[in-house]
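[PROTEIN RECORD]
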Amino acid sequence: MTVFVCARCDAVLTAPVTRIALPVHARHSCGHELLPPLMDPGTYAVDPEPSGPPWRPWNEIAADEAEARGIFAPEHALSFGPPGAIVVAPGDTRGTVLIPERCDGYCMGLDGRDGPNLACAHCGQEVATRIDDCSYWQAVWLVPHAVRRLAADGPARPAVDRETLAQQQGTPPIEPPGAWSSRWEAAIGAALAHLLAASEGAPVAVPEGLAMDVFGRALDVLLPPGPPAKRAVLAGPGLPDPGPAPDIVLVPRHPRTGQAWRASTTMETVPLAADVWTHLAFPREGLPLPVTGRMPDGVLRDEPLPRHPWGSFRADSRVFLHTLARLPAVRQPWLRRIYDQVKDHPYARPF
């Protein structure tokens, strides 16, 4: 367990927290609605990329300079701020006060446009940026050079063993009253970038059912028509070994470390957020069958009916582009054309 303290006066700024992987939806925003906290209580994550000002437009950055940072396709601008921003849930902050002149926002809250808007209540040093405006995940981003980590007493969050991922509940794909989950839109957007790179430009078949619902439409639009030349399957803890037949496996990222599960073969792997992978690999809904007597386990009642989405699934184009720009494969002409097409028309079909 860790607590973060002010680097100037050592005042405690957070509750005890445990490090987990940065959620894939950290860079996702969603329309005109209030989103929940980005982080679960008692956790923190670190963004390895630079964040915040100063920003430089792409035309001022040499290609080799961008590639040295792991970026292989043009973006509007790149941050040259400090790397390593630390994100916690707003409810896990302690001993901070708002800086009134930096509390601007777009609509219903703070969007962090003016930089750090939280100061240490003890000494007044700028220590963090709180974001809670509509369309943004609620979060407090600690300024890396303004805080220090100290070991804290108390039980750490229990470790998540890879073999127990199948028992995790995961994030349901449909939210009331029928919208696709924002977390799914971000997670599938990131996985889609990896799946396109693994396809090498050939048509790809994915499993029928929910996987087809979230990947199939985008693959049909972005890859050439024709019979599938490659096959992708789900693989990971709790599933049988896929064997040598598939070309691509969709595997979970470990929620604590962010590392992708490694298949026993040399197939191309596509990492997927564990809470989404769990629902794809182990569907939670049974069939609404008429029965008498006590309802058997795994069978749904016919009232209320299972949730169904309002419309077709749309992966988040911003997360897709962010991920694809950081894959060396995007330098291939066919994949660069897809990148440019989506970048120029981020809301066109299938996004």
